[in-house]
Design brief:
With 118 residues, this protein is α+β, with helices and mostly antiparallel strands. The protein has a single domain, classed as Nucleotidyltransferase, domain 5. The chain has four helices and four strands. The protein has a four-stranded mixed β-sheet. A hairpin with a 4-residue loop joins strand 1 and strand 2. Helix 3 packs parallel to helix 4. The longest helix is centred in the first third of the chain and has 19 residues. It is globular and about 40 Å long. The N and C termini lie far apart (35 Å).
């Protein structure tokens, strides 16, 4: 029997295959119990365009805990602003096999509010 982590990784691979077929730039989210991370990745050029996480010094001053919804909202806003600075507005959302609720949902909705289209 496969563990929860192995099943999540299988789901994430399936999502990435679908996104790769569309040749889209993707917003990839990873979460742990303590922090949340987001990257805007261009798979056609194999580069990370920009990234944001709750480990950055800017966020540590604003938030006490990087593993809650408030932190996810801040990261969503920041990654959207950084992506727009690099000229990226249309992306595919890669939730890395996590369910679309809680912190992942909060990050996605905050990024949408800042102007990312997905």
């Amino acid at each position: 029997m496969k563990s929860n982590k192995e099943r999540r990784l299988i789901r994430s691979k399936q999502t990435r295959i679908r996104i790769a077929n569309n040749k889209a730039i993707r917003l990839c989210v990873h979460r742990t119990n303590l922090h949340i991370y987001a990257q805007v990745i261009d798979d056609s050029r194999n580069i990370v365009i920009t990234q944001a996480s709750s480990l950055e010094k800017d966020f540590k001053a604003e938030i006490n805990n990087g593993g809650n919804i408030a932190a996810a909202i801040l990261i969503g806003r920041k990654i959207a602003q950084k992506a727009k600075e690099h000229g990226v507005s249309k992306i595919a959302f890669d939730r890395s096999g996590y369910r679309y609720h809680g912190r992942v949902k909060a990050l996605a909705e905050a990024a949408r509010e800042e102007g990312l289209i997905f």
